[in-house]
């Protein structure tokens, strides 16, 4: 109930077995003092039973309650992070699930719904007694962060007029935020994709930067993963740009210059009853002084943070609060820098290095109202669920990535000891699929998403919406391997793709190409002595999660007919959306290099048990409660400079490359249900 209809009080909704919550008297806020009548009126006799909520000694909620109930919530704003940190703490500290339920039913009526949802999600993810509890995908609870608000007017009409069961899906507008006059619009299908934005929100949910309990933040290599996951987003975005005749994204590195790209999000917050503010083309970020958000910071401070960061890289050492210097070593340097840059509580010296990346988001998101004189909230860059919609997101993160690359350039290129796999030869690679040999086929696809949970104070039932997104035809990698070691061996297979040329058809210099490598898959395989043929399906990618998981619909549950196999699927919402695995390509065929490397698993392996964990999208998301499942640097072998002039010069016998083509067909097909997902009807009584 806490994830359904976020602003509709939990005691007005029916849960399992048609039951309703009965709160202790002191839990009802003033406006709901008449609540016992409400329950009777609303549910009459069909509420079979009431669930009494335990009356507990309420903790001090004054800090999280400072955020206005109908306001916005941003993880990038330090004050909001502190409030959330406190609330997470409270939720984590509850003795058992009954106490947690009790405090939640109190908070749900008083705490900002966005913050409440975030903190409860983090707590459920991390409490031992709530592992495996279902939470609906964020897009169902807050569809207002993902789709054109026109949908909600239609949905209200539909829920009030058309009986449940006869409702037709409502089309969601795509490509509605700008016209063809705006060149950036050509990649709006990527920026505004619901799955892409859900992935980003989920990543930041799984990897919070702040909590009173450091264990929630301190996950294996989380700083490095911050660098790598966002680096991959930039690679993917640049590839999409080349396919659409746009040059690679320009870094936003001069904070005194106007930001050329404007963005008009055309989103409404249903909680705040406000439109998300736009940013006009040519806006320059300004010094911020917003007492309401406890923000007072000058642009020059952002520059100072940047300079200190660069200095740390140049000297390969970090200054600690006590003045001591610590060396950035090859093994953990990137992880430290990731936490310093983001920043998180794991930053070695937050006072000195500041909060560079987060404050960049904040400066940009308040550029339209830096001193709050117009009483405006932040723009889409201020929220991890919406930031990727804005072209400036990629300009900012390109710069962030560039700074990380400064560090990577300091490292010595990998030697043969790291690159070779003696006795193993990759004799051939190819791609097979309906689009043809060595061809990736792409097109548009129409899928449905459930909105019913996100519609407060409307009649119950399913409301489906249709949205159009990129899709590729399924394919299989076929890799021929000769093993001359004379015995069986275990190998890690790494598969990357990179553009060969830019938007003008000019070949990419190798150093740029290796930094443009998109990870497509990584898996372990056993090789027999002699010849082997490895066949790996695109749907099994370690980067992506299936559509059904991106849009996890709780009305199918593990064990139900047509439900996903894994009993853990609810928590595994982090993962690149599978429909975005392959860039769009072009009608004439966009050439890409497909690269495969086999490395010695004995050198890559991490000893751990993976039973019952979400481990199928580990490349960008890691594995819940486990170590990152690969000992090598993320992005290996392309994360460091390479002393070769071309990809073919770089090749070792245990690697191979194949030129492939991405061919786009401008047709829209309904989703083919090769995997179980959408159910036609959403039934709020099933959990
Ligand atoms: Cu994910 Cu800037 O960190 O958005």
From TrEMBL:
Any one of the GO CC terms: extracellular region
Cofactor dependence: Cu(2+)
Chief location: secreted
SUPFAM superfamilies, A to Z: Di-copper centre-containing domain, E set domains, Hemocyanin, N-terminal domain
An MF annotation (GO) of this entry: tyrosinase activity
Protein keywords: Copper, Disulfide bond, Melanin biosynthesis, Metal-binding, Monooxygenase, Oxidoreductase, Secreted
Family statement: Belongs to the tyrosinase family.
Protein name as annotated: tyrosinase
Organism: Arctia plantaginis (Wood tiger moth)
